[in-house]
Amino acid sequence: MNWGLIGASTIASEHMIGAIRANSGHDVVSVQSSSPTRGKEYAAKHGITASTTSLSDILNGSDVDAVYISTTNEKHLPQAMTAIAAGKHVLCEKPLAMTVADAATMVRAAQDAGIVLATNHHLRNAGSHLAIRNLITTGRLGEVLSIRIFHAVMLPEHLRGWRIDNPLAGGGVIPDIVVHDADTVRFYLGEDPADIVAQELSGAMGVDVEDSVMSVWTTPSGVTVQTHESFTHPFAGSGIEVHGTKGSVIARNVMTQQPVGDILLRTASGEESIEYSLHNLYERSVSKFATAVAGDRQPAATGVDGLKSLAVAEAVKKAAVTGQRTTVDYGGY
Ligand code: NDP
To answer: Where is the Gfo/Idh/MocA-like oxidoreductase N-terminal domain (predicted)?
Structure first.
């Protein structure tokens, strides 16, 4: 499968170009950037044959089978719609769009065109999260009562651009990190958070956008979820805990892009360290996408998954701004 990159981004540079090429038979053949100079330099650095400033150059190239969109968030909708109209399969970064309504437009367009639209939620591709989900679905924890998520990090300096000062590009910790936590919870439980209370902070790093948020969600089956996302915490470390009637999972350093972290299972029998696969998260995302394009299965995270994680993030934002308990609006999905 030949891929075109829409966006000369850090995530493509650090993770996705390598992940695509690590999948046998896959290559990155072109990149689109709004800047001709940056595009050329990016292509040269990564051994990509062609660079262009024109989306149609990428989409009309007969050698491109699929595109990976990793531009700033406000561009995902128009670029995905153009790619879908050109008949290209789309792996799009999170958040899928700026609003649930926009995400629904993308999902519908892909369905109507018979195109695979996937969301690059990497965490559900991690061996650690697959192992935790397996503990839940095989009943090792009994009935799940609550989940606690620790995802307060220090935003690396090289990412302190649009994320901390540009709400129009989708900046802020809620669109950036809450979507990942929402996707992980949905992946674990197989149900969608229903309502939310939240408080946010800004000013320590974020200008005009929130840089920290805490929220509590409830699910239809009665699970409570407590989450903390931040750009400003240098030493907190990440983690997730799932507490059930028969056992608790305490996982540390697993809300990350790397296949790392420790998982402890605590039950009446004592404590047990859980082993898991150490495969590359992004390589698995690409592999699942390719299987979906081949017609066999769904990608790891579908367009609807991206829409739903965004719906939770939207509700967290609304709850934080209004101070009101907020029902998540999945736009009919
Ligand atoms: P970047 O800021 O690196 O890239 C976004 C855009 O900024 C690029 O498309 C590029 O525009 C422009 N840009 C890049 N470098 C420069 C520069 N030096 N000077 C000026 N402009 C520049 O963003 P990220 O890679 O961090 O994020 C991109 C997307 O990926 C977002 O939607 C984000 O939410 C998502 N993401 C997902 C992750 C995951 O694990 N799933 C992790 C990180 C990000 P152009 O293309 O026009 O050249």
So the answer is: 1-121
* Atom number, ligand 1, closest to the C-alpha of residue 8: 46
CB atoms within 10 A of CB 235: 7
In the chain, how long is the greatest CA-to-CA distance?
A: 61
Q: In sequence order, what are the residues at sequence separation of 6 or more whose Cβ sits closer than 8 angstroms to the Cβ of residue 245?
A: 141, 142, 143, 145
Q: pLDDT per residue over 11-54, tens digit each?
A: 999 999 999 999 999 999 999 999 999 999 999 999 999 999 99
Residue 199 bridge partners (DSSP):
214
Q: For residue 171, what pLDDT band results from cuts at 50, 70 and 90?
A: very high
Please name every residue paired with 213 in a beta bridge, in sequence order, or none if there are none. 200, 229
The pocket around ligand 1, CB under 6 angstroms, is made up of 7-11, 33-35, 38, 70-73, 93-94, 120, 122, 159, 161, 176, 257
| In the predicted structure, residue 202 carries a pLDDT above the cut 80 | yes
Q: Please compute Rg for the chain using Cα positions.
A: 19
Q: What is the DSSP letter of 302?
A: B
Give backbone dihedrals phi and psi of 243, rounded to 5 degrees, phi first: -115, 125
- What is the number of the ligand 1 atom nearest to the C-alpha of 38? 48
Indicate the average pLDDT of the chain.
97
Minimum-distance ligand 1 atom for the alpha carbon of 7 = 46
Instruction: Give SS3 for 234.
Output: coil
Q: CA triplet 250, 257, 120: central angle to 5 degrees? A: 110
Query: What are the backbone angles phi and psi of residue 202, rounded to the nearest 5°?
Result: -145, 170
